[in-house]
Please model this.
Amino acid sequence: MPELRRGATNHRWVIVAPERGRRPSDFEQKGTELAHQEPANCVFCAGHENETPPEVYRSPSSDGQSWDVRVVPNKFAALQHYDELGRESVLGIYDQMNGVGAHEVVIESPDHCSQIGDMTQQQALPIVEAYIHRLKALMENPWFRYVLLFKNHGKEAGASLLHPHSQIIATPIVPQEVRESLNIAKDYYERKERCLFCDIMLAELKSGERIVEDADGFVTWAPYDSRFPFELVIYPKQHSHDFTTMDADQRAGLASVLIRTIKRLQTLLGDIPYNFVLKTTPNPIVRPGKPGYWTTLAYDYHWRIAVMPRLTRVAGFEWGTGFYINPMPPESSAKYLREVEFPSSH
Amino acid sequence: MPELRRGATNHRWVIVAPERGRRPSDFEQKGTELAHQEPANCVFCAGHENETPPEVYRSPSSDGQSWDVRVVPNKFAALQHYDELGRESVLGIYDQMNGVGAHEVVIESPDHCSQIGDMTQQQALPIVEAYIHRLKALMENPWFRYVLLFKNHGKEAGASLLHPHSQIIATPIVPQEVRESLNIAKDYYERKERCLFCDIMLAELKSGERIVEDADGFVTWAPYDSRFPFELVIYPKQHSHDFTTMDADQRAGLASVLIRTIKRLQTLLGDIPYNFVLKTTPNPIVRPGKPGYWTTLAYDYHWRIAVMPRLTRVAGFEWGTGFYINPMPPESSAKYLREVEFPSSH
Model:
């Protein structure tokens, strides 16, 4: 049964989810290559729908015979629904909570090998629609303080399946890094009456040296403080704190931007492992009189997507300090990615 | 020329050190196995002393003919000495500093394959002595606000060389995670007049379920909020904020504890990749009248070593939120490691 733990020497929560592996021998360095996974044995492929837990969302294909995107609960969930949140102290010094939450898998295509960088806008749009639909649905639950959307592509990026998919985890706390940036954004807004993230975007557009593209209502650049080579962020150009409020144009725009961003990386670097992560407002549900909940509506936040290629290994230095050595200046990353040439269809 | 950067949305500094890799093709997924490195081509092996930068420390062997441990500047330094610290603003919104600092390599043995887990106390003690000597020497420099000691063992843990070595990086800032735990320790001390870390150690000793060993003046356990399977911490049992103040008994004790800790992990799990990181007080030099420096003496801190086996891959979830999924409860990790049986020589 998963649980959430917080130690006494930092503000970080850790999910302890023993279902995902138990004995020392489970951690042997296995040589399994994702490339060896085949459609015939893949539970995410079309025709294997009854091998996943029952779906919570389906985007039917245009002919109505099949589907474009399915969302199913993760069979090996890091967090699960419970009756009680159950916060308590441990040994008088630590904090513990039941592993209340949800963990879902977004199956991005019925096709085993259809990667987002090679999709058309028509193929990628249902993925964005599925993200929005599930985020909205999970935010109906007042226990879920934050809903995290992310994609692991490639073994080095933490994927255990080749079939294109992303994941959604709803948590009963606002993760520390999100909380920190929320607080910084709030302070900045109180001081300046301007959105911190809008100011950053405008400064980047003015400077231009880290910009990769400015198109379809989104700006993509290599962050000034990139931790990793070819790290990127995608910001909606119009201020918005909440990913789920995108209109039809913005959804279509985001689908195109995601395709082009991955295509740029893959054209330049090959089929590299990467992660992307959505940062958006915490669940804004205010529950008057109930203690322990985050009640800020966070209009001063700005949603965005961080894209992190996994080309370097994170070592002792990083784990011990939370600071990073990046061997590639983001100005160079941006220049290389800006200059990638596309076939005219993109 | 390395530089330090801080963005506007968090408190994290990043070292951008372009010397370490420059073109996209430098990041191709290379298959180089450390095991293929041979003593004949190894610059850290005895007989190759003139192939490293000039040594900054040497522990002579007992016969005076050779050496047990050497410390040399890292040829590919993440940070370097400069004349100016040079803090400035970038685009009015970010922070930048020259990459002032030092980066050294501790060559732990003249022998290519001598791993710490297989050493005798007599072999490991000069490593501990070298650590203390170099930390003290680097803390003479008032620009170096923190001196970080760490070890990457195995490719998955970020090592690029097989020959046993650890690394020391001196930085002109106190890393965010260290700063956070310093602040928490300070608040706790002000409230309770007790050391937070001593309280944690006493609670762990009382509970016992996460303790691996209590011997030679050190207590080793699996932290309650372990991020990784088989993660461990080693605390000096006697309160001390400063690693460099250990007396002869404590140095000998630590050498033994390090040997046994690595031996336990390797007996249970094989030659796994791992990191260890020292957490100790920032450079306590107070410079009255000079702004921008950390001036706390941090007697309320407690030095310790974190040991992190690299058995799981860190994925999008972790990068996006700073919170972690650990598939192995630390109570199980501790039980397995506690029960490891040693040959009587340990």
Q: What stands out?
A: Chain A touches chain B through 97 residues (CB under 8 Å). Confidence is low (pLDDT under 50) at residues 290-295 of chain A.
